[in-house]
Amino acid sequence: MIKQSPPVAPAPAAPSPPKRESSAAKMAGFVALCLLIVAGAVWLSRHHAATAAKKGPGGGRMEMPPVPVVAGTAAQKDVPIYLGGLGTVQAFNTVTVRARVDGQVTKIAFTEGQDVRAGDLLAQIDPDPYRTALDQAIAKKGQDEAQLANARVDLKRYADLLANEGVTEQQYATQKALVDQLVATVNADQAAIESAKVQLAYTTITSPIEGRTGIRQVDQGNIVHASDANGIVVITQLKPISVVFTLSAQNLPFIQDEMQATGDPGLPVEAVSQDNTTVLGEGKLAVIDNQIDIMSGTIKLKATFPNTDLRLWPGQFVNPRLLLKVRKGATVVPASVIQRGPEGDFAFVIKDDQTADVRQVKLAPKLQDQVDQPEVVVEDGLRPGEQVVVDGQYKLQKGSRIKTAEAPGKSQIRSPKAEEESARVKRNA
Question: Where does 94-219 sit in CATH, by number?
Fold first, then answer.
């Protein structure tokens, strides 16, 4: 009888059905999870759509907070067009006062920095040598006049004798020549007297112009000569005063056209400090140079200023501004409003619903040497009264909601009265 061994293989096959059941359960769970996610996404989408429908157009986008910007208004006003350059203040007249005769300076009659008028005494040179020379010339003339008188008497006597043939014709002619010679000598003596008077007058040195004296170059007691290189003092005329400046030659036709249109060659000119913060004086264009500098392509101009307050000084550098014309009723906005883009200049306009709109604008053409101003002229694209964005454009795009904010630093500006009140409170504290 054959003995059979117990079965061994079926034992490990028993767990197979549970594995298939576990995989199927996992697959079913995964499918259910996916369906839940899809269902949730569909629900969220429908919820957002319903919310957007309730909010109206644009509600489907993510609601962005309003962008804070500084707002301004396009204005309509007259805008001056200035041409500017670099200029130098020059004295209207400058005179170096020198001695015209040799001698010792016996008196200095001015103080350094003094305002003098034409004819005021400045210095005195010892006049005694020149007064003596004048007296000698007068005495010489008297001597020659006496000889002339005697010669004329003899000439009359010779004339009588010639009629009676008492003298020859030769003797009469000789006497007449002597009289003529003495007449010329007396005339020369008179000229010498006039010359001596002039030399004597030169010993009194007076101011030839009205102006201000500079630093004294000769002290009292020194010997001066007419040939000295240095003078006694330099006088400069400060009222009025001149400013010489240059502009591009391209502006010359515009300046000439404006002068002809107004009929006034003296166009207004302002002298501004080098930091462009203070107007030092207002004057008129006096002259345009008669040639253009071919090396730099510029034209030189000269303006005259009354300078009653002496704010302009010879040798000072200023920024002259020539008022070319005034644009009447122009639409202007702050310069920071204008932005540059691929399609040209544009500005952000604030609509009634407090959203931003992009507006293409056309600016007025700018001349060579035209002075930059805080406002620019807009020829097309904006109307007076429209609100525009002055600051904060870098966060904006078309359709952005905006919120007007205070200009930076404005809240820090305090009136003198407020400052005084604040100081009083601190003292009391």
Answer: 1.10.287.470
